[in-house]
Amino acid sequence: MTPSPPIHDSVALLRQALVQMDTLVQAISPESLHAPTPCPDFDVTALLDHLGMIADRVTAAAGGDTAKEFTRGAKSATPSQVAQWQARLVRVTAAMDGCDLTAIVELPFGTMPLSAAFGVFVGEFTTHAWDLAAAIGRQDLLDDDLGAAALAMVTVRVPASPREDTPFADVVAVPDSASVHDQLAGWMGRDPVAWVQ
């Protein structure tokens, strides 16, 4: 009998991705606030703001309340902005407790059960974790097990081509010997070689 493919626990993985992201956010030094990231539209500060928006989206999808008072489009990261990220983390974690994973949610990337949406968010947060880690030179904070799970999920959900009508750049080939996070970055259109610290 052929074994079934592994079933990823999207809730546990998303929690893990959020914890990893929080660890990286706490590692941002004042000197790195305006460092470029592999996302051409974001420096570190703008990426932090974007991460807060994603966290709000997860919270809303899970049926929680987002904080309307949060600043958007900040021009520079401040301790209060990091505190806003942490407040969002508390909200999204609380919203995920006891949420209905079978609920159908409408999101910018499609309509699907909440469990599937969580899987998409795992890929998004884990990819942006690589972006942030590359920007601040802290790839040592990336979790390989989480990276492997996210890579398995995104290669199923995000096609290699065509990508003209997607937010993803073309796949960047990386060696088979590359880390799982570099493989994930390459699949999501980043060039890991350009970001070697």
Question: Could you please describe the fold and organization of this structure?
Answer:
Helix content is 50%, strand content 4%. The protein is mostly helical and 197 residues long. The protein has a single domain, classed as Four Helix Bundle (Hemerythrin (Met), subunit A), CATH 1.20.120. α1 packs antiparallel against α3 and α2 runs antiparallel to α4. The longest helix is centred in the middle third of the chain and has 23 residues. It is globular. The termini are far apart.
Write the layout of secondary structure elements.
Blueprint (H helix, E strand, L loop, with lengths): L9 H17 L17 H18 L17 H18 L7 E4 L2 E4 H23 L7 H14 L22 H8 L10
Antiparallel strand pairs: 1-2
Helix pairs in contact: 1-3, 1-4, 2-3, 2-4, 4-5, 4-6, 5-6
CATH architecture: Up-down Bundle
**What is the tally of helical segments?**
6
**Looking at this structure, what is the CATH superfamily?**
dinb family like domain
State the oligomer. single chain
SSE order, one letter for each helix or strand: HHHEEHHH
CATH topology: Four Helix Bundle (Hemerythrin (Met), subunit A)
CATH class: Mainly Alpha
Strand content: under 5%
Largest sheet: 2 strands, antiparallel
